[in-house]
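Thread title: Can someone regenerate the structure for this chain?

I was given the following input by a collaborator and told the matching structure tokens would be attached. They weren't. Posting the sequence so someone can regenerate them.
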Amino acid sequence: MIIPSPHLNRFFCVLIFFFASNVGFAAESSGITQSEIGKIEALLTTLSTQTNLKFIRNGSEYDSSTAVKFLRGKWDHQRASVGNVREFIDKIARQSSTTGQPYRIRLPDGHEIDCAVFLTNRLAELESK
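Best answer:
Regenerated them for you:
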């Protein structure tokens, strides 16, 4: 039977600590910050409260609460690819993954703008406060 020395046990403890610390650092550095998540949530909240808007996806109209559910679901599936609020707008809220058609927002006066433009404008308003 081999009896490990106390020095060997200490070496393995240090080695395990080193790898565990670096794994945590790598995961943290590649993830999205709480501040950016807060901005995304603020944009989604802003969109959900705009009951006089229509969200247009692949030619079909949806109300704002349905739009938020859709965008949140898409974000849930692609969360690893989103590192900040601008990537959220570009990768999640810009266009259909299926058809490549841009998502649009119909304003109360009937004019339409790209969803990415709408959200970028709202982000500028949020960041200026």
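The helical segments are 6-30, 34-49, 64-78, 85-91, 115-128.
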